[in-house]
Amino acid sequence: MSYCNVILRGAVKQTDVLYTYKIPETLEGKVVPGCLCSVPFGKGNRLKTALVTEVTAECSSNYKVKEVSGLVSDLPVVTEDQLAILDKVASRYNCTRGEAAELMIPSCVETHKNKSVAFVEIADKDEAESVLREGSLRSSAHINILEYLLENGPSDRKEVLYGCRASASQLKAVIDKGLVRSYKTRAEDSEVTSEFEFEDVPDRGFTEEHDLNTDQQNAVKKIMEGDKAVYLLYGITGSGKTEVYLNCARQTIENGGSVLYMVPEISLTPQSINWIRGRLGDSVAVLHSRLTDNQRYVQWDRIRRGIARIVVAPRSGVFAPIPNLKLIVIDEEHDGSYRSETHPRYSAKEIARMRSSITGAKIILGSATPSIESFYAATHDVYEMVELKTRARKQARLPETVPVDMKEQIKLGSGEMLSVPLRQAISVALSEHKQIMLFLNRRGYSRTLVCSDCGTAATCINCSVAMTLHNNKRTGKQNLVCHYCGYTIPADTAECTSCGGIHFTRAGFGTQQLEELIRKLYPTEKVLRMDQDTTMSPKAYRDIIDSFAAGEASFLIGTQMIAKGHDFPNVTVVGILGADLMLASSSYRASERAFQLITQAAGRAGRADAPGKVFVQSYRPDLPLFRYALTQDYEAFYKAEIEYREKLLLPPFKAIGELILSDENEEDLIVKANELKVYLKDFLSYQDEKHGFELFGPMPDVIYELRGKYRMDFVIKATTKSALNAIYKKITTDFDYNRYQISFNNDPEN
Predict the structure, then answer these.
(1) By CB atoms within 10 Å of each CB, which of 138, 192, 373, 612 scores lowest?
(2) Cα gap 557→515, rounded to integer Å
(3) How many other C-beta atoms lie within 10 A of the C-beta of residue 722?
(4) Which CATH class name applies to 400-444+509-646?
(5) Which tens digit of pLDDT belongs to each residue from 161-217?
(6) Given 3.40.50.300, 3.40.470.10, 3.40.50.2300, 1.10.3720.10, which CATH number is that of 209-388?
(7) Radius of gyration of the CA atoms of the chain, in A
(8) What is the pTM for the complete model shown?
(9) If you write DSSP's letter for every residue of 162-231 in order, what string do you get?
(10) Count of alpha carbons within 13 Å of 24, Cβ hemisphere only?
(11) What stretch of H or E contains 684?
């Protein structure tokens, strides 16, 4: 007789313990560690899904032992190394083991046998169009859902939710209004796999073999023959980091290993797939959040069975069940999207290191602008530094950089968007049939509206933030939209929350207004815009990139989506607009993020034979930060930044944690915040001094009111993240979440 210990998938704190079950004779030898099974749970013997952690010959339980009901999948769903880090993940991110298991086992594993797919469609086209014209909806998510379905027709429910950045409850609200209906249809096997019947690799050099230059050859050799676990591949934009990734990946595959190739967000995946597939063959699996459950299962199962040797994925791919994992590539390692913004707030880079410590996989962190923590680790012999000092194309040179003082330009009558030098460079580029990229990290039409009577910005009724002005393409009018909760009103109905005034003026500009100006100034040129508003549909991103890469448009305007990882050899002019906006943040990382974005955006110019020019428009062009970014002098920036952080004991010199206490009642929040302050002060006062605890707060959150809840923050510093985790664990034990809504975050952005 055999027994198994299991963890309930998605277990809450009260049920996050090991449960013992008897293995029936029919499942002997099939129930093994790492497999997913169904077990009867509780007095009602309700079937639950559980992960098997151990199989034993003896039973240590003092209770009556029930039998395993059956297997959910015929093969293990997690690898041995994943099982080994389960407890570490739960401890590090203050979650249950069941929640950690949920990160590793996608829901499609349970649901894939049901080939029905949920679809949604417009219930009445005329009514939907009428509602949009009238502007009666107050949620941007509801508006986006209707616009999406009117444009794309009946669509997969999951695709709609992802494309519209909407929640299931928001979709349900539109269904309840009678504007949208939901139905299920059977997905045939051909439909399940059609998304990944890859089209021919575009003829853009993806299949072309490139001779490695000396720096690249040395980098590959150093990584593949070195004995370090983590390598920081540090090279200027255009230095050929991708070639190093691909050559290391090829050697890993030839030696029998598998490769995880991570990109910072789904927007980079199409190009990454083309590079990898064009050079390394078809054994590629792709995981990302836009897949339907059936599509995701097909890819996940190919990975689990070892059919796919290369996995391309954003953050969540770090939990893929990859057998014999021997290389992990993390491209643009500095990118903030590698950290989850929802519970559990895990870091993909940390999970990669956990897996590497067990599998022996080498990790390549690649960036032209590494995170301060990574560069510090590489200069203190924790990581191995690998440098690429020149651009890979012999003819390519770093672009000429031009700082532009917008104070002077406005005096000259250029307006606040396009300076005279940038306009002149655009005219020259167009005459030479070259392309232009304009980077503005603010979507919408204008930053906000400001009351003409008292100067107060138009503010959301649910959040203490200014609303952004957007064009309504259906009505030709404009809406005010809160980018945090989605609350939307027609701009002409706005009332000042301070004085009740109804007269407003526009403040600032966004990508929509920039696009409008470019079309007006250059009416014969095709203009593409890429931001969150233009990339809701499944193929919108790829269509925009492919169109621009094919030379079908002269201008590409966009937010940070256009700044990362793209290679457009025909781009000779890059304009970086509103550079000061990137510094308008309370985060201690604001300078680092601004430097990275400007450097990445500037790196899009002059990547081929033709020299490039980059114009950085700001009201403070003399700031050292801009000088460092314009010359791509990362090391000078790092030196200044690391001195600042050392003085204030910021990461990497100390770990920082944030506690956010929220409540719908402001007075109750203040009382509870003071209670928590007394508790924390008392608890920290008798901790060992070696932990170096420092407490700050309570203080109002940067966004004091969010989605109808008021928020107060505490910031705690400590010598290690483990010490912070111990504090979090103690708080969750001593405070009832139903009364004290507390969230925790290691390495907060602020």
Answers:
(1) 138
(2) 7
(3) 12
(4) alpha beta
(5) 888 888 888 999 999 999 999 988 766 543 434 344 444 444 555 566 778 888 999
(6) 3.40.50.300
(7) 27
(8) 0.86
(9) HHTT--HHHHHHHHHTTSEEEEEEEPPHHHHHHTTSPPPPPTTTSS------HHHHHHHHHHHH---SEE
(10) 11
(11) helix 666-685
